[in-house]
Specification:
Mean pLDDT: 80
Number of strands: 7
Oligomer: single chain
Strand content: 5-15%
Structural class: alpha+beta
Largest sheet: 5 strands, mixed
C-alpha cells in the first residue's frame, strides 16, 4: 500500500515505536530522528521497497553503519515526505498559469472581433460594396471559430489534468483516514463516523459496536515473530471487512484490537454478527509465507454494546471494552454482550 506519514492511533504508534527502538538497538543503530523514521516505516509495513531493502541487508549480515543508514533515509523516507505535496503544488501552479493565458487570449480575441466589426460598420456607412463587407465579416467569424476551437481544446486538456489532481488529493485524503497495516479505517475516520452515527442514534435509530481482540497475541508474536503477527492482523481485518454490512465501519482501534460500528443494528443483531466473525476467524488456516508452515489457529474475544440515548460515545466504548474484558476473563474465544455485564455484577454481589 502506498502510504506515507498517516496519523495512527496512540497504542498502535507506541507499539511500532517500541519495536523500532528494539530493532535499532539489536542492530546497534544510533536512535537519531532520521534512523527512527526509517525503522518506524519499516516495521509499520507502509513501504514495501524499504522493507525489501532492509530485509536484504539483514539476510546478508550487512552492518548498518552511518553511511548505510543515511542512504536508507535519503532513498526511501525523505522523498516520500514532500513528494506528493510538491508535485501537487507545481501542477496546480502550472494549471493556474495556463488558465491565465487562456483568459488573456480570449480577451484579446474579443477585442480583435470588436475592432473588425467596428471597421466594417464604418466602411458600410462610407458606401463600401456590401458583398465585400459580408466577406470580411465571414473571414473574421471563421478565424474566431478556429481560435475558439483551440481554446476549447486547451481548456478540455487542463480540465482533465485538474481531474487527475483532484483524484490524487482524494487518494491522499483516503490514505490519511486509513490504518497503514490493516487497510481498515483509522482512529480519525472512526471518530468522525461515530459522531455522525451518534447524531442519527439520538433520533431513535439503534447503534451498536463490537470490539474484537486477538487471544494470546503477544505470545503468538513472541513465538513466530512480528512479521507473522502483522500477517495475522491483516487476516483478521479481512474477515471483519467481509462480514460487516456496507453501511458499517470496520476500523483499527489500537494494537491488536479491531472495532466495528453498526448503525441501525440493535444489540442482538450485533451479537449475531460478532459470533459469525468469531467462528470465521476460528476456522481460518494461517500459513507462514516464507516456509509454508501451518501455524496454530487464532481465536478472538469480542465485546458488544448498544448506544443509549444521551450518553457519551466514550461510555459506549467503555461498556463494550468491559464486555470484551469479561470475554477474556471467561475463557476467551467467545462473544460477550453488555447484558452479561449486569449478570456478572449481580453474581458478584
Amino acid at each position: 500500500m502506498d502510504s506515507s506519514f498517516d496519523d495512527p492511533d496512540y497504542d498502535y504508534a507506541a507499539s511500532i515505536a517500541g519495536r523500532a527502538m528494539r530493532s535499532m538497538a539489536e542492530q546497534r543503530i544510533a536512535p537519531t530522528p532520521a534512523n527512527f523514521a526509517v525503522w518506524f516505516q519499516y516495521l509499520s509495513g507502509s513501504h514495501d521497497d524499504l522493507r525489501n531493502a532492509i530485509d536484504l541487508l539483514i539476510d546478508h549480515n550487512r552492518p548498518f553503519d552511518a553511511r548505510t543508514n543515511q542512504d536508507l533515509f535519503e532513498t526511501y523516507v525523505a522523498p516520500r515526505v514532500s513528494a506528493v505535496v510538491a508535485d501537487t503544488s507545481e501542477r496546480l501552479e502550472a494549471l493556474m498559469g495556463a488558465a491565465k493565458e487562456f483568459l488573456a487570449t480570449a480577451i484579446a480575441d474579443n477585442h480583435s472581433q470588436m475592432q473588425v466589426i467596428s471597421q466594417v460598420a464604418d466602411q458600410g456607412r462610407a458606401g463600401v460594396d456590401p458583398k465585400l463587407l459580408v466577406a470580411q465579416l465571414m473571414n473574421e467569424l471563421a478565424r474566431a471559430a478556429t481560435r475558439a476551437t483551440r481554446l476549447e481544446a486547451g481548456f478540455a486538456e487542463k480540465t482533465r489534468e485538474l481531474d487527475v489532481i483532484r483524484d490524487s488529493l482524494s487518494r491522499s485524503e483516503q490514505r490519511a483516514r486509513t490504518d497503514m497495516l490493516t487497510g481498515l479505517a483509522n482512529r480519525r475516520a472512526l471518530d468522525e463516523f461515530l459522531r455522525k452515527a451518534q447524531t442519527t442514534a439520538e433520533w431513535g435509530e439503534p447503534l451498536s459496536v463490537l470490539l474484537l481482540d486477538i487471544d494470546y497475541f503477544k505470545a503468538f508474536n513472541d513465538n513466530f515473530g512480528h512479521g507473522v503477527g502483522d500477517q495475522v492482523l491483516r487476516l483478521m481485518a479481512k474477515v471483519l471487512r467481509e462480514k460487516v454490512r456496507e453501511q458499517d465501519l470496520p476500523a483499527r482501534y489500537g494494537g491488536e484490537e479491531l472495532i466495528a460500528v453498526l448503525p441501525d443494528a440493535d444489540l442482538g443483531a450485533c451479537a449475531e454478527l460478532a459470533e459469525r466473525i468469531r467462528r470465521a476467524i476460528a476456522e481460518c488456516t494461517i500459513t507462514r509465507r516464507s516456509t509454508g508452515e501451518i501455524l496454530p489457529n487464532i481465536s478472538v474475544s469480542i465485546g458488544v454494546a448498544q448506544y443509549r440515548t444521551g450518553e457519551a460515545i466514550t461510555d459506549l466504548i467503555e461498556r463494550c471494552d468491559r464486555a470484551l474484558y469479561l470475554a477474556k476473563s471467561g475463557g476467551r474465544n467467545r462473544v460477550v454482550t453488555e447484558v452479561e455485564l449486569g449478570r456478572a455484577g449481580a453474581a458478584a454481589t
